[in-house]
């Protein structure tokens, strides 16, 4: 068994009492692994029909499945690159279902990278409403951007700031907020030896003080009746019950609806804490809509591209930042005071006399919205060639073409003289 910090063991013993031995024995078991289906891209029935991996349903997540990592490698499958599923620790999948997301909700994920909760929220919103996905760390935010893009996000804004700044802009605005708080990571011990090495009791207290701040700021951004879900992947009482109890005691209008601990000796998962709070007090919201300038001649090249290559005609909710063209969410708040990484869907780059579509656009589009689709089946080695960045001989000359795997768009290529030149982004190319 791995060697665990003395202080951690003493504290868990105080919480678990008679169950302590059972908890300790769970460290002799293998870590659990899960994947979560993106139902915006593939329905459950079709995914099951493909019969790719041996899967077992995760009881608390409709879209989640256990897989056994000694039998299969779902992270090395083109459908993963296509955003058909996301690899996520099974107990972490218990958080988003507690939000009770309805189509059209405005949702905030305050601590979002690398995107486990945000990708789940996106597929539940099904490109309605709005997701503001925030991450304070400018390095971690890159993976968040890539994962949301892969999932086919349209009504999603990515911000890079702290909770105090968010609160200044979004007071009283959101229907649902998730705070998957930075924590001491005790639930990572079985899968990550570095988490054990990094653990100290002072880290527990440091995290607690950040968590107190984030939850207070988060609550201010909820509208009346809104739901806030707070979660951690740690076991300490200080970062879980203590944060929640203190918060509830300080806020008359906050009602604790539910509090749950997932322990690794009780369920198949690494462990999590989740608390669901409802806000009953009024909150004045002063958020204004983003003012949009109607673009016409500026986006002429985009419209030409759309006519030639797509079967859709996007609403005029465009915004230009330099030569980057974005399609803003249907309802978009004013973001002038925030550092923003993505304003909705990045459509592409407007160059002089031409438009170059973005990778994000290929993931957003449904196959029927694309005029030229080169579909490749999973058992054809050509799909791996494409993902490695190689050219493909298609025998056609259709210009901008979307490559798809099992009918799911995965990236662009440009065809001429029977050859498809590869436009799969260099940084995402596979090396397997
Ligand atoms: C547990 S992780 C989030 C995991 C993510 N929700 C997921 O499911 O993929 C916590 C995140 O909080 C961020 N964070 C750290 N300090 C923060 C702060 N003061 N305010 C907001 N976020 C913070 C960290 O950079 C980290 O990405």
TrEMBL record:
S-adenosyl-L-methionine binds at residues 111-117, 135, 162, 180. Transmembrane segments: none annotated. The keyword Nucleus does not apply. GO terms for biological process: methylation. CDD domains: AdoMet_MTases, RsmF_methylt_CTD1. Keywords: Cytoplasm, Methyltransferase, RNA-binding, S-adenosyl-L-methionine, Transferase. The active site is at residue 233. Residues 23-298 form the SAM-dependent MTase RsmB/NOP-type domain. The keyword S-adenosyl-L-methionine applies. GO terms for molecular function: methyltransferase activity. It comes from the Bacteria. InterPro entries: Methyltr_RsmF_N (IPR031341), MeTrfase_RsmB-F_NOP2_cat (IPR049560), MeTrfase_RsmB-F_NOP2_dom (IPR001678), Nol1_Nop2_Fmu_2 (IPR027391), RCMT (IPR023267), RsmF_methylt_CI (IPR031340). Belongs to the class I-like SAM-binding methyltransferase superfamily. RsmB/NOP family. This is RsmF rRNA methyltransferase first C-terminal domain-containing protein. It comes from Intestinibacter bartlettii.
């Amino acid at each position: 068994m791995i060697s665990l910090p003395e202080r951690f063991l003493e504290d868990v013993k105080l919480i678990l009492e008679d169950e302590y031995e059972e908890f300790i024995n769970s460290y002799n078991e293998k870590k659990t692994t899960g994947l979560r289906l993106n139902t915006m891209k593939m329905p459950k029935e079709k995914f099951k029909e493909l019969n790719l991996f041996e899967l077992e349903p995760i009881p608390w997540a409709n879209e989640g499945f256990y897989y056994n990592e000694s039998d299969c490698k779902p992270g090395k499958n083109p459908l993963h690159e296509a955003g058909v599923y996301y690899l996520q620790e099974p107990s972490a999948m218990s958080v988003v279902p507690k939000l009770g997301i309805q189509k059209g909700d405005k949702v905030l994920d305050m601590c979002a990278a690398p995107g486990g909760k945000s990708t789940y929220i996106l597929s539940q919103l099904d490109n309605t409403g709005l997701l503001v996905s925030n991450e304070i760390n400018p390095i971690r935010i890159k993976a968040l951007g890539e994962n949301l893009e892969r999932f086919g996000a349209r009504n999603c804004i990515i911000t890079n700031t702290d909770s105090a700044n968010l609160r200044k802009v979004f007071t009283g605005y959101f229907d649902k907020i998730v705070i998957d708080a930075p924590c001491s990571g005790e639930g990572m011990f079985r899968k990550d030896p570095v988490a054990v090495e990094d653990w100290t009791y002072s880290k527990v207290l440091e995290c607690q003080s950040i968590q107190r701040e984030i939850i207070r700021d988060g609550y201010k951004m909820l509208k009346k009746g809104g739901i806030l879900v707070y979660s951690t992947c740690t076991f300490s009482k200080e970062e879980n019950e203590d944060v929640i109890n203190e918060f509830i005691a300080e806020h008359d209008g906050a009602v604790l609806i539910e509090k749950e601990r997932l322990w690794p000796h009780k369920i198949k998962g690494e462990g999590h804490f989740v608390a669901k709070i409802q806000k009953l007090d009024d909150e004045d919201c002063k958020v204004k809509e983003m003012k949009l300038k109607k673009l016409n001649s500026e986006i002429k090249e985009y419209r030409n591209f759309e006519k030639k290559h797509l079967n859709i005609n996007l609403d005029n909710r465009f915004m230009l930042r330099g030569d980057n063209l974005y399609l803003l969410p249907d309802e978009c708040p004013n973001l002038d005071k925030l550092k923003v990484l993505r304003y909705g869907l990045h459509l592409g780059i407007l160059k002089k006399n031409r438009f170059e579509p973005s990778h994000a656009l290929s993931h957003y589009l449904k196959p029927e919205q694309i005029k030229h689709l080169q579909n490749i089946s999973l058992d054809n080695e050509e799909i791996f060639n494409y993902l490695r960045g190689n050219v493909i001989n298609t025998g056609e000359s259709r210009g901008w073409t979307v490559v798809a795997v099992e009918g799911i768009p995965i990236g662009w290529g440009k065809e001429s003289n029977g050859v498809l030149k590869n436009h799969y982004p260099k940084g995402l190319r596979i090396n397997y």
